[in-house]
Each structure stands twice: as structure tokens, then as C-alpha cells.
Design a protein that fits this description.
- The structure is a single chain.
- Strands 3-4-6-7 form a four-stranded mixed β-sheet, with no helix packed on it. Strands 1-2-5 form a three-stranded antiparallel β-sheet.
- It has two helices and seven strands, in the order αβββββαββ.
- The chain is 12% helix and 32% strand.
- Strand 6 and strand 7 form a beta hairpin.
Length: 166
């Protein structure tokens, strides 16, 4: 029995070093000099951010909330000086992964109201827009979970910023 005590103590010390992977110098898995596991879920090269080249809408007419069963619908109306604007969208001012819409640290969600103008040589680029019939309308649904984090929303156009409180 006394012959087995020392080998059993050595084996017990080695096995106890294998506890949490990479935390101990006794862990044989960490002897290869591998780097410590990352503590962040963000990719090493960072998130892919796409810069939106579309210009901001020249004039924002209104911004309002519409009720939904699972949250609210943000409806924004704008106006452009000529006909033919297309692909209108509300995009986040701060680049965010995927299509997330999270507010800044102060609880304000900052958005840009953008749309692609007509081609310079198209017929629509020469026609003036009518403010009553040629409004540009976009909508963004926000769930109650997203709204819990948002204190207010700022929508920026080319010349003005509209702030809408929750």
C-alpha cells in the first residue's frame, strides 16, 4: 500500500491539472503553446460593414408610430424634389452586424432616411415631384423587446433631424 501512495498522488496532481481546459500549466492540452481561447464572440477581423452610398432624403415630412400586436411600426414620410427616387430605407447611422437595430449608449436609436435618386439622364430626373402624390414612405417594425432598450429615435434626412420619443 505504501508503494502505491506516491504514484497515486502524482497521478491525482496531473489529473487535477486537467480541470478547466487551458487554465493550468499542469494541463497537457496547454503544453503545445496554443493561444488562450477568445473571450469575445466578435470575429477576429471585425464585423463586415457596408457603407450605404445612397444619399439622404432631402426633406422629412413626418414620423409617427402605428400600433402592432407585437410592437410598433415606425412610419416615416419624406419628399424629394424630383420623381423617380427608389429603394428607400431607414438605415442605422452606426454600423451594426446583420440587420440589428440597437440604440446607442444613451438609449437613442439613430437612423438615416435614404433613397436612390433617379439616373441623371432619365426622364424622371427632369420631372418635378408633387408633394401630395409623390411622397416617399418607409416603415420599420420594432418589437417590444427592441423598444424596451430604446428611449427615443432620431431620423436624419439631408437637411433636418426628426426626433420621436417612445
Amino acid at each position: 500500500m505504501t508503494r502505491l501512495t506516491l504514484p497515486l498522488l502524482i497521478v491525482a496532481a496531473i489529473v487535477s491539472g486537467c480541470g478547466r481546459s487551458g487554465d493550468s500549466g499542469w494541463n497537457p492540452l496547454s503544453w503545445g503553446g496554443r493561444p488562450a481561447p477568445s473571450t469575445s464572440l466578435a470575429p477576429e477581423e471585425g464585423y463586415v460593414t457596408q457603407i450605404d452610398e445612397r444619399p439622404a432624403i432631402p426633406q422629412i415630412l413626418s414620423a409617427e408610430w402605428e400600433p402592432l400586436s407585437e410592437g410598433r411600426l415606425l412610419v416615416v414620410r419624406g419628399f424629394a424634389p424630383v420623381k423617380g427616387y427608389h429603394s428607400a430605407e431607414l438605415v442605422s447611422v452606426r454600423p451594426q452586424p446583420g440587420n440589428r437595430m440597437t440604440p446607442d449608449a444613451d438609449g437613442v436609436l439613430r437612423l438615416r432616411f435614404v433613397a436612390a435618386p433617379p439616373a441623371a439622364n432619365s426622364a424622371a430626373a427632369t420631372l418635378p415631384a408633387n408633394p401630395t402624390t409623390d411622397q416617399i414612405v418607409v416603415a420599420m417594425p420594432l418589437s417590444f423587446l427592441q423598444l424596451n432598450k430604446i428611449y427615443a429615435i432620431e431620423i436624419a434626412g439631408a437637411t433636418q433631424v426628426v426626433k420621436l420619443s417612445r
